[in-house]
Amino acid sequence: MFNDILNYNDKLSSATYRKWLSDFADSKRVYPQIIELDPTTNCMLACPECISAELLNGKSIPKEIMYSMIDNFSEHNVKGLIFIGGGEPLMYPRFGSLLNYAASKGLKNGITTNGVLIDKYLESIAKNAAWVRVSVDSSNASSFQIARPNRVPNVFDRIINGMRELAKIKTGLLGYSFLLLETRGFSNAKELYDAASLAKEIGCDYFEYKPMVDGMHFLTKYSDEFLNTVWEMQDKMKTLETDDFKIMMPQSMEMYRKDNLNQPKNYHECPLIKLRSLVTPTGVYPCPYKRGQLKYSLGNIDENNDFYSLFDKSGVYEHLDPSRDCQFYCIRNDINEFLFNLLSGDIKVDELPVSSIKDVFV
Question: Which part of the chain is the Radical SAM core domain (predicted)?
């Protein structure tokens, strides 16, 4: 179960995606199956390293558009919806009702959150989220205040207590996310083991650590001392693993064992646009890497445009060139290479082993 989370190509090879793969390989019109959704650009934290800081302007997707859009997704057999940001998704007005509605329309739901409002929507999240990933990035209250400046009373304890209560009644996976920070004279590498121990103690299914990126999504450089601490902590954290608790490290961390943190692409189109998309209050974008960059916008969802009409008429397929525009590390580069092999015929859908993975979030 845990190893499947980051295994995107195996997920895509499941029976769930067989028809989409066949249509794509035959160059038929296909639409995104996973929608990342920024309900709002509001946030109660003031994280100095927030890559979306310039986009936090208090805008939210209007309720009537939001619910109509979810109907639209359901009618087009979207597999999964990820509430993310942008801002903090749980700050969307009556978020619990929105989540309940999405689940009632047959959508699988994932949530990426800072965790502050988990306690407010506990029952709805526990019942309707296939997974929840909480960005904690610290192991204690004092460190959290440095990493995530805010004016919320007892915020770290509130987040941890909310996660603890969610763990008791959840029906999906709960993850503790830890962003590696070496900035402003602050370092959290030595906290990794304590944070992972805390994650295990409160009932999380996994602890994930990941590298920071800059405003253009390039991996941030760390000192040798910092990275040595991370690798030492990785070995130590592995001792915490059980059948019910795992330590997860994304593939991007392996880039730090190489000389080059960039990931040049030799392809000029991004087929992933046809599999996943991002909807925000300011428009629809091909992916979170292009969030807020208007030249990559597919347009806005409003009374004149539903989601699918934007894809029918968008020119973003032609002018987004990954070899030029995406030289940073893309976590789904492997999917793009897989899709190109389908188009070339090097991989044939009817000869592709059917994966047994049930997780739809490619």
Answer: 29-257
